[in-house]
């Protein structure tokens, strides 16, 4: 068994143990598979948590209490070396939905008694047979909208439960040829080079066509939504986003990896930018804000075809002075009086 297969099997075993454990067993599962001083990064309001048992206490047990009969529905599973570090770092990534019955409130979001989907993506760093670092990003506003809440103004893209890859080949439980992963990483890095400058001298659509297939799909987070084709992506997200920000910092990632036709990255934060007005229908604040992001890509040929993106919009808007979760909870209290 290759080292990459061993890291994949470790995470698959971890997921099986975690997903089948009772809530009072989850701390033991975390201790069994993760380092005692595990560094875990999650979206607001969880942020950074240190310690395997603490992650179970603060995140997993309350989530399992809110969403009963929880099951993991993966669409992408891959592993690889971090291309950004000189020393070898082995990472495993999974993406999909956590689905359950929304039977009890979670984070102040009222239950529906119906099935609900929490979009998620997780990067796990493996060392000496343990998970020592995790970035697990999840789309809480997407869950809020399923519960009938409106955390943001109307979005420019489509709101829907997002499917996995069109090719249905994202679950790479076996190894894929290294050349395929290198080609995917090259396509991602070319896109990053264009994305990070905003001054290529080309029209936005011509710039995007250098690294994206014309029938690309951008599976964006709740509050922005999903878009299809370069023309609609430019109109419904990329153009408004660039127009709504100034002083964008350089891109900074913690991990960037690829396997087969899939790859991705995450940062903490990826970049900082100052809203000048219009983004998500909100006014300018003049306050720099952090963007914590995971991007997962599917390559087709020498260009990118699909992109699933997770943005911590709750954290970003809290930095701008709007605590979306707190406001939603206050409105629920007022509505129940």
UniProtKB/TrEMBL annotation:
List the protein's name.
SnoaL-like polyketide cyclase
**Pfam families under this entry?**
SnoaL (PF07366)
Coiled-coil portions = none
GO BP annotations of the record are:
polyketide metabolic process
Q: What is the lineage of its organism?
A: Bacteria, Pseudomonadati, Pseudomonadota, Alphaproteobacteria, Rhodobacterales
Family annotation (InterPro entries): Cyclase_SnoaL-like, NTF2-like_dom_sf
Q: Which organism is it from?
A: Paracoccus alcaliphilus
């Amino acid at each position: 068994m290759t080292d990459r297969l061993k890291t994949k099997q470790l995470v698959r075993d971890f997921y099986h143990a975690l997903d089948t454990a009772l809530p009072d067993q989850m701390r033991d599962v975390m201790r069994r598979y993760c380092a005692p001083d595990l560094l875990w990064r999650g979206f607001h309001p969880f942020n950074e948590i240190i310690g395997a048992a603490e992650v179970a206490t603060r995140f997993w047990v309350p989530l399992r209490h809110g969403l009963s009969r929880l099951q993991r529905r993966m669409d992408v599973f891959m592993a690889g070396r971090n291309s950004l570090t000189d020393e070898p770092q082995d990472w495993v990534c999974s993406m999909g939905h956590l689905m359950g019955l929304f039977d009890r409130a979670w984070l102040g979001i009222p239950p529906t008694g119906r099935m609900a989907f929490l979009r998620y993506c997780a990067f796990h760093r493996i060392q000496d047979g343990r998970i020592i670092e995790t970035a697990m990003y999840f789309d809480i506003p997407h869950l809020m909208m399923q519960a009938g809440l409106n955390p943001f103004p109307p979005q420019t893209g489509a709101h829907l439960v997002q499917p996995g890859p069109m090719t249905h080949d994202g679950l790479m439980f076996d190894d894929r040829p290294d050349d395929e992963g290198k080609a995917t990483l090259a396509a991602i890095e070319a896109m990053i080079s264009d994305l990070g400058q905003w001054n290529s001298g080309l029209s936005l659509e011509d710039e995007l066509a250098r690294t994206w297939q014309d029938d690309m799909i951008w599976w964006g987070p709740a509050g922005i939504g999903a878009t299809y084709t370069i023309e609609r992506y430019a109109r419904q997200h990329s153009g408004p986003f660039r127009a709504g920000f100034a002083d964008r910092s350089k891109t900074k990632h913690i991990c960037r990896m690829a396997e087969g036709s899939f790859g991705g990255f995450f940062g903490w934060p990826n970049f900082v930018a100052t809203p000048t007005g219009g983004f998500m229908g909100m006014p300018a604040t003049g306050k720099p804000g952090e963007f914590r992001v995971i991007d997962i890509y599917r390559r087709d040929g020498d260009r990118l075809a699909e992109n699933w993106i997770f943005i911590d919009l709750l954290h970003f808007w809290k930095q701008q002075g709007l605590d979306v979760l707190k406001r939603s909870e206050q409105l629920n209290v007022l509505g129940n009086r």
